[in-house]
Design goal:
This protein is an alpha/beta fold. The protein is 35% helix and 17% strand. It has 9 helices and 10 strands. Strands 1, 2, 4, 5, 7, 8, 9 and 10 form an 8-stranded mixed β-sheet that branches. The mean pLDDT is 86.
Length: 301
Amino acid sequence: MYIDGVFSGGGIRGIALIGAIEEIEKRGYQFARVAGSSAGAIIAAFIAAGYKSKEIYQLVDEMDLKILLDERKSFLPFSLTKWVALYWSLGLYKGDALEMWLEETLARKGLRTFSDLPQQKLRFIASDITNSRLMVIPDDLDQYGLNPKSFSIARAIRMSCSIPYFFEPVRLKVDRETNIIVDGGVLSNFPIWLFEDEHYQRERPIIGIKLSPKTDEVPKHKIDNAIQLFKALFETMKDAHDARHISSKQEKDIIFIPSTGVFATEFALTDEMKLQLVQQGRDCAIKFFNSWRYDRKFKVL
C-alpha cells in the first residue's frame, strides 16, 4: 500500500525517525511522496533516493557525526573564533561538510537535482527570514528566479537544516539581493499540511512522524533566566504553527516520539545512544500501529 510520509525536524534526534520507518516498511507500506523539515528533510531525501531504513542507519552508524561540525579557520584563539563566527557568519559552523556529505550520499543513488524525481515526490520547508516568508522547496524556488528542476537537492536540505546560530544560514542571492535562509523548523517543523487541500482531503493515507509528545502532553516551560527564555521562545516558535494545524483526526495518523533528553545539536553521540534513539522510534511506531486504522475518504483524482 502506498502512503505519503511527513517527517519533523529535531536535530540529531532525527535518528529516532529511522526506527519508526523500519516498522512502516515491515508492514509493507511504501512511500509515494515524502516531505520534511530540518532533520526530517534529510530522512525524506534518503527515502526518495531509494534508501531503506537499515541503509540509512548504516550511513549514520558508520559516520563520525562530529565531522559535520566544520568551523571556520582563524588565527584567533578558539573561544574568540566562535564568537566572531557567530557575529559575522551568523553561525558557529559553516554547514559545507553537511551539504557535501548529503550530495555524495544522494549521488550514490543517482539523485542530484529535483529533475531526477517525479514532480512533488520530495518537498522541504525552509524559512526566508529576509522576507519573513515560509519556503516550500522546490515549489517556491521560481519566485527567486531559480529553476526548481535543476536545483541541488543537497543544497535544498542544507537550507532546511540551518539551525539558527548553530549552522550558518544559506545566503540565496537573487539579482542584487541576498536572502537569508534558515531552518524550516522555525516556521513549520512538521509540514503535514503539504499533502492536504483546504478541506483536509488526501490523495492517499498519510503517516507522519513527529519528534515530540502529543500536543496535550507537551510539558510546560520553566523560565527563570534568559537562557531558559530563549529556549522557550525557540520551542514555541518551532511548534506552535503545526500544533494549531494538527486536528484530533490528524493525530491518529502521527507517530509521536517524545524527547529522550538528547539535545538537538548533540553531535557527539555514542553508538549506544544512536541505538537507543532508533529503538525509541521503533517502540513508538509499534505502539502506533497497534491501534492505527485509516478510515477517511481519499480525494477523488
